[in-house]
TrEMBL record:
Listed Pfam families: SNAP (PF14938)
Nucleotide-binding is among the record's keywords: no
Principal location class: membrane
Gene Ontology terms describing biological process: intracellular protein transport; regulation of synaptic vesicle priming; SNARE complex disassembly; synaptic transmission, glutamatergic
Membrane topology according to the record: Peripheral membrane protein
Gene3D superfamilies the record matches: Tetratricopeptide repeat domain
Record-given protein name: SNAB protein
The organism's place on the tree of life at top rank: Eukaryota
GO cellular component labels: synaptobrevin 2-SNAP-25-syntaxin-1a complex; terminal bouton; vacuolar membrane
Organism, as annotated: Mycteria americana
Length: 313
C-alpha cells in the first residue's frame, strides 16, 4: 500500500477509535466492558499514528500518539502514557517543535511523578536541543540542561548509598551525564558574557572529575576554560586561578593548556599582540581550536593594546 493508502487507512482508524471512546461513555457500556473499548481505541490510535508516520504526516502522527497517551492515562497506565507522549514528541519534532516540547513536558511530568528521574533528564535534554537547533532560544535551552543535570545528580547521590559494582558504574554514568549538561550551560553562559556562572560550573566539573580515574583526563580542559573566563574579566584573577588549579590538580601544570595560559598571561602583561597570536597559533597547530575557544581567545586579545585585525592567526 502506498503512503496515500496508509494515510486513508489511518484516518479511518482514527474515526473508529473515536467511536469506541464515545461508546465507552454510555451507561451500559460503562457497566459492561467500557475499559475494553478504551483499550481497543488506544491500540487503534497507536496503529493510526504509525501509518501516519509511514505517510510522513508527522503532525497527524503526533496527534494520534497524543490521543493514545490520554487514553492510557485514563486506564491508569502511566508508563504507556508517558511512552506515547514521547512518541508524539518525536513525531512533532519533524513538523511542530513547540508541540513536540509540550508532549515531552507531559511525558516528563509522568516520569517525575513515578520517580523515574534519569528518563525525565534525557527528555529535558531533547527539549534543550529543540530550543537550541529549532527555536533558537538559548535561555530556555540552558534552563532544560540545568534541570537535566539536577535530575542526574539526584540519581547519582541516591546510588551512592549502595556499594556494588553495577551501582558504582551507574553512578559514574549519571555523574558524566550531569557534567555534559552542566558543560553545555557553562559554554552558553560564557558566550552570553555570564562569566561568573561559567567559571563556577567549569571549576565544579573540574573538581568532580580530577579524582576519578575514568574522567580525570578531562579535568585540565575544564580548568583551562575556567581560567579563560577569569582572564576575560581580569588578568590578575586569571593568574590567581591558575595558581589555584595547579595546586589542586598538579597534573595540570604539565598540560599544553596550562603552558598556553602562562604564555598568554605574559603576552597580555607586556601588551604584546604578536607574542599572544604566536602562542595561539602554536597551540592550534597541534590541538585545533573550536569555535568557543576561538571566541574567548579573541575577547582576551581585544584587551591588548595595538591589536591588529581581530584575528588569532
Amino acid at each position: 500500500m502506498d503512503s496515500t493508502g496508509k494515510e486513508r487507512e489511518a484516518v479511518q482508524l482514527m474515526a473508529e477509535a473515536e467511536k469506541r471512546v464515545k461508546g465507552s461513555h454510555s451507561f451500559l457500556r460503562g457497566l459492561f466492558g467500557g475499559n475494553t473499548r478504551v483499550e481497543e481505541a488506544c491500540e487503534m490510535y497507536t496503529r493510526a499514528a504509525n501509518m501516519f508516520k509511514i505517510a510522513k504526516n508527522w503532525s497527524a502522527a503526533g496527534n494520534a500518539f497524543c490521543q493514545a497517551a490520554k487514553l492510557h492515562m485514563q486506564l491508569q497506565s502511566k508508563h504507556d502514557s508517558a511512552t506515547s507522549f514521547v512518541d508524539a514528541g518525536n513525531a512533532y519534532k519533524k513538523a511542530d517543535p513547540q508541540e513536540a516540547i509540550n508532549c515531552l513536558n507531559a511525558a516528563i511530568d509522568i516520569y517525575t511523578d513515578m520517580g523515574r528521574f534519569t528518563i525525565a533528564a534525557k527528555h529535558h535534554i531533547t527539549i534543550a536541543e529543540i530550543y537550541e537547533a529549532e527555536l533558537v532560544d538559548i535561555e530556555k535551552a540552558i534552563a532544560h540542561y540545568e534541570q537535566a543535570a539536577d535530575y542526574y545528580k539526584g540519581e547519582e547521590s541516591n546510588r551512592q548509598v549502595v556499594f556494588d559494582t553495577i551501582t558504582y558504574f551507574n553512578a559514574i554514568i549519571d555523574c558524566s551525564s550531569a557534567n555534559k549538561c552542566l558543560l553545555k550551560v557553562a559554554a552558553y553562559a560564557a558566550q552570553l558574557e555570564q562569566y561568573q556562572k561559567a567559571i563556577e560550573i567549569y571549576e565544579q566539573v573540574g573538581t568532580n572529575t580530577m579524582d576519578n580515574p575514568l574522567l580525570k583526563y578531562s579535568a585540565k580542559e575544564y580548568f583551562f576554560k575556567a581560567a579563560l573566563c577569569h582572564f576575560i574579566v581580569d588578568e590578575l584573577n586569571a593568574k590567581l586561578a591558575l595558581e589555584k588549579y595547579e595546586e589542586m590538580f598538579p597534573a595540570f601544570t604539565d598540560s599544553r593548556e596550562c603552558k598556553l595560559l602562562k604564555k598568554l598571561l605574559e603576552a597580555h602583561e607586556e601588551q604584546n599582540c604578536e607574542a599572544y597570536t604566536e602562542a595561539v597559533k602554536e597551540f592550534d597547530s597541534i590541538s585545533r581550536l573550536d569555535q568557543w575557544l576561538t571566541t574567548m581567545l579573541l575577547r582576551i586579545k581585544k584587551s591588548i593594546q595595538g591589536e591588529g585585525d581581530g584575528d588569532l592567526k
